[in-house]
Design goal:
Two copies of one chain form a homodimer. Helix content of chain A is 32%, strand content 26%. Chain A has 194 residues and is of the alpha/beta class. In chain A, strands 1, 2, 3, 4, 5, 6 and 7 form a seven-stranded mixed beta sheet that branches. In chain A, helix 3 crosses helix 4 (137-145). Chain A starts with a strand and ends with a helix.
Chain lengths: 194, 194
């Protein structure tokens, strides 16, 4: 099995890699993210690649470095992390009672493994539609009071208590959590066994 | 808050009720399930109601008893728990590379709370489409060897290592795990505060 490095400090992404039985080391990329695209698919692929390439610089030949980036998109507008309770309330008021899209980009840099000795690169984006039930003002306030939204793109985490406000999704559930482990495994499996 | 009894011994259903912040007691129904319908929606609603009514018989007035039943359906045929490794392999060979449906029925008996003093009843079924990636013989054998499929309808659990074989879903993810907590909360919320 190849050595795997996860270039993200997210505990949710760690859990998901563990869930599909992979062993890995965590080295979060601290590189400043540079936004160069406008479309959500392009943004998340590019940012995930920036993270993976940052860590791959110092990796041994043959190592796989996994970078990942997730954004929430509403009518083409990107919603980031709310950081404050007021922003979280405002975001949730926009999301309730309708559908939005979650995009996660994943890039895997396999150090020095292209035919010409440069890095092999796998990069893709997955989209999941998420439909949120209508929420009352009290429900939004109660959820924001849990503190859960502050560090999450779109101001919610699907895997916690917010699940009670989610009617359904179309696509990969784990993609909404931050790592589309089905697609990731399918893309990687030819590379896992050396 | 009303007293809630979960009439199921499933640890996954317990986790999900806890996830949406409900407090409850577990009293699994041990009544023999009697199959009276042919359509998956009807079967799961009826079996969930049988379980809830069984436990509600001895419940105090005002208590909510939640029963639940999940089946996997492939081209209209119900797939149960495989029980043996051979059955699990055969089921997974039917599921790989295509979509199937998971139905969970939920019935909530609210003891003595109908207008005429009989039990109020909420009963519904949720359907989720699940698309499984193509699987090789080796992948099927490796998954069955984990022992995970044996006690699960359709021979897989979406919340474990099998996630790497799932391309996506359409509907409620938690419904596939055995309890559609979004819909359940929406149906119950008018009843939760007395």
């Amino acid at each position: 099995m190849r050595k795997i490095i996860l270039a993200s400090g997210s505990p949710r992404r760690r859990e998901l890699l563990t869930q599909i039985g992979l062993e890995y080391t965590v080295i979060p990329s601290k590189k400043e993210e540079i936004l160069r695209f406008t479309q959500p698919e392009d943004i998340v692929k590019d940012l995930s690649l920036q993270k993976a390439q940052d860590i791959a610089e110092n990796a041994e030949v043959g190592t796989m470095v996994i970078g990942s980036d997730t954004v929430v998109s509403l009518d083409g507008e990107i919603l980031g992390k709310p950081h404050t309770s007021e922003n979280a309330v405002a975001m949730l008021k926009r999301l309730e009672g309708r559908s939005h899209q979650v995009y996660t980009g994943v890039s895997v840099v396999i150090k020095g493994m292209a035919a010409d000795g440069t890095d092999a690169i796998i990069s893709f984006a997955e989209k999941t539609d998420v439909h949120v039930y209508p929420m009352t003002e009290e429900e939004i306030q109660a959820y924001v009071a849990t503190g859960d939204p502050l560090d999450k793109a779109g101001a919610y985490g699907i895997q916690g208590i917010f699940a009670k406000h989610v009617q359904g999704i179309s696509g990969c559930y784990y993609n909404v959590m931050g790592l589309p482990i089905g697609r990731l495994y399918q893309e990687l499996k030819g590379w896992l066994e050396v």
